[in-house]
Amino acid sequence: MANTQFSTKDRILGAAEELFAQHGFSGTSLRQVTSRADVNIAAVNYHFGSKENLVTEVFRRRMDDMSAQRLALLKQAQEQSPGELEPILAAFVEPALALAQDRNGGGAFIRVIARAYAEKNDGLRKFLSERYGHVLRDFARAIATCVPELTKEQLYWRLDFLAGALTYAMADFGLIKRPSGVSDTSHRSKAAQELIRFAAAGFKS
């Protein structure tokens, strides 16, 4: 029974993620989600209770794991390379690019993130700030030890710019396209290397 419940919940989340990516949050109805997931409205209400909860669960499904990976890599960077900026930036960048490369809906989720930037959804922004804000604060403190000359305002501006550049790189619609014969993994690795170098120079400038 538990497996059936899990698969139903996962199917609803997958359908919602695809539809949010295509139509946005306000432009997607629960009826569209139930139709895509091939479930009835009672199943959505049972698992999520409301559309708002469904939206936040779509984010939690991806971002809880990514945040845990980031923090684990940050701890490792601080223990193995104390005072070095680039390993800290790698801990921030690499899990996000790995998520973008996830063939199980990673591309759709990147478009969902873009929707979150584009749409004014105060409830979602509050949820993201409350649930994941501590991750950014941990990285800010770690980066600050490497560039103590920056004011807190400068530090947060530059971290904001890094997050924006990372989102752009995750979406993979920039000037640099993956060359034929180069694997997705190699292309993402190259993107990570270049972004980390660029960000390090920005924080140190």
TrEMBL record:
Protein name, as recorded: TetR/AcrR family transcriptional regulator
InterPro entries linked: DNA-bd_HTH_TetR-type_CS (IPR023772), Homeodomain-like_sf (IPR009057), HTH-type_TetR-like_transc_reg (IPR050109), HTH_TetR (IPR001647), PsrA_TetR_C (IPR041586), Tet_transcr_reg_TetR-rel_C_sf (IPR036271)
PANTHER family: HTH-TYPE TRANSCRIPTIONAL REGULATOR RUTR (PTHR30055), TRANSCRIPTIONAL REGULATORY PROTEIN (PTHR30055:SF235)
DNA-binding is among the record's keywords: yes
Domain HTH tetR-type: 6-66
Origin organism lineage: Bacteria, Pseudomonadati, Pseudomonadota, Gammaproteobacteria, Lysobacterales
Coiled coil spans: none
UniProt keywords, alphabetically: DNA-binding
DNA-binding region positions on the chain: 29-48
Keyword DNA-binding on entry: yes
Gene3D superfamilies the UniProt entry points to: Tetracycline Repressor, domain 2
Superkingdom of source: Bacteria
